[in-house]
Amino acid sequence: MIRKLLFLAAAACCLLPFMDAGLALLLGFAVALAGPHPYPTQHKVWSHYLLQVSVVGLGFGLNVHSAIQAGRSGLLLTVASISIALAFGLWFGARLHLGRKATYLISAGTAICGGSAIAAIAPLVGAKESDMSISMGTVFLLNAVALFLFPWIGHLLHLSDTQFGLWAAIAIHDTSSVIGAASRYSPQSVEIATTVKLARALWIIPVSLVTLIVMRSTSGAQQQRLRIPWFIFIFIGVVIVNTFVPFARVLAPVCLSLAKHGLVLTLFLIGSSLSPKVIRSTGGRPLLLGISVWMLIAVGSLSAILW
Known about the structure:
This protein is mainly α. The chain has helices spanning 2-13, 21-34, 42-58, 64-95, 100-111, 115-125, 129-156, 161-171, 175-185, 187-201, 204-214, 230-244, 246-272, 276-282, 284-306. Helix 4 crosses helix 10, helix 7 (129-156) crosses helix 14 (276-282) and helix 9 packs antiparallel against helix 10 (187-201).
């Protein structure tokens, strides 16, 4: 009971005005180090749906014209980064003698959108719980590093808001960490990062389709259903409403504020899942694969943006 109350108190602290994504992640990590999670199964569901609701709420800070411009500017980089990351990840994972399924999950998670891609693709390849744990652990650790490292590099290189938003959307895995890093950089970069990142996340659909076709001969693969990220389409609808419906603009500041608080709370929940057990289960070779693919995307996309 005491552990649950402390967890809820820490979560409530994330709603305070001075809290940002980075502090929330660190607070969650501190809770994870303090002992077993008081809500071992519920917190995954909470973070999953809270992130989706928060992302939809961020749509009240965008209009159709800026969203189209942002999506167009990141399209080529998105396609190139996903293709290169998947190809390199599969090749390097084989050289590291990792399991084929774990290699594919880490590569897909790094290339597209972290935990969401892993959760969508794992059933299609018949991945075991151990494969998912290793893949999720690798991606979550790298996301935590990116949340602090990317804004620092961005300021060091004097990236513009547009440049940083585009870079974060292409090179960071999970949507929560993308928006979290962008929010630590500037409000303007959040708009770019959110739009480009969600466009990137839609690539779960074609990658899952290809995976399903390739794995059709595998036992049980034909019975699996694709997990389509429907919340992205709701986000698009909110952006359209926010642009063309005058009344929506009255509600926009409140919805946007709630969405930002929701995102901070999401980062706390994700941090609370980074227990010592998760860190230990990641292992050296999966982490090396994740870092290698991540560095390839990060350096390559930054070079392309600056060029």
